[in-house]
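To the wet lab folks,

You asked to see what we're planning to order before we commit. Fair enough. Below is the target structure as tokens, and below that is the sequence we designed to fit it. If anything looks off to you, flag it before the synthesis order goes out.
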């Protein structure tokens, strides 16, 4: 089967790509509007782009002709929190993707408890096993739809007690959820451990 992307509209290409690029980790993002509304939204176009300093990237698209509230908030205030959700939070993650007017806080609407951050004004979700306080560093726009790739630096990590062992995260204990095509999600399933291969150290520490 062959598919020519030039013959497809943006929505059909999106459906195709989100079914191919799987599973995708989910960045569950809190951000603060200029008027003080705490926004919450999930993004599955998400990865890390630097380890020193630690930097994360999320791709934020549009809702209609305008950018999503998260993009506006991050570019306005330059602070936000990226959370990693676990399986018990799956429904809350999905429900937070519902589009609300900017004056509605998804956090309040879903009844989620928050905690203050250490280095930024945006609050973090108490129930999430991982929360990463971020400061905005760069924004790049791509494609005809001009999706915004937003890069931020992690200035503080918050991890649930028991998740880190000898400097490494216990992935099974983290129990993260992933996004696949459509309104569908996945969990880790079986974890396969293979032999360690040699890699040049990334630094001296």
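Sequence we intend to order:
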């Amino acid at each position: 089967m062959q598919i020519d992307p030039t013959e497809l509209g943006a929505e059909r290409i999106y459906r195709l790509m989100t079914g191919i690029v799987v599973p995708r980790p989910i960045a569950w993002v809190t951000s603060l509007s200029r008027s003080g509304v705490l926004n919450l939204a999930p993004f599955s176009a998400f990865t890390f782009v630097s380890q020193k300093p630690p930097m994360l990237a999320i791709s934020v698209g549009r809702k209609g002709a305008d950018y999503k509230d998260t993009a506006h908030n991050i570019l306005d205030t330059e602070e936000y929190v990226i959370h990693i959700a676990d399986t018990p939070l799956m429904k809350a993650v999905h429900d937070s993707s519902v589009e609300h007017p900017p004056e509605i806080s998804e956090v309040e609407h879903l009844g989620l408890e928050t905690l203050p951050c250490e280095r930024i004004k945006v609050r973090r979700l108490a129930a999430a096993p991982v929360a990463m306080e971020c400061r905005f560093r760069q924004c790049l726009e791509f494609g005809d739809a001009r999706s915004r790739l937003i890069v931020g630096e992690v200035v503080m990590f918050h991890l649930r007690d028991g998740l880190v062992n000898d400097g490494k995260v216990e992935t099974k204990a983290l129990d993260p959820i992933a996004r696949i095509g459509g309104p569908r999600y996945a969990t880790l399933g079986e974890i396969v451990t293979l032999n360690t291969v040699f890699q040049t150290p990334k630094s001296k520490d």
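Structural context that might help your review: Residues 5-186 form a domain with the Pnp Oxidase; Chain A fold (CATH 2.30.110.10). The chain has a mean pLDDT of 94.

Thanks,
Computational group
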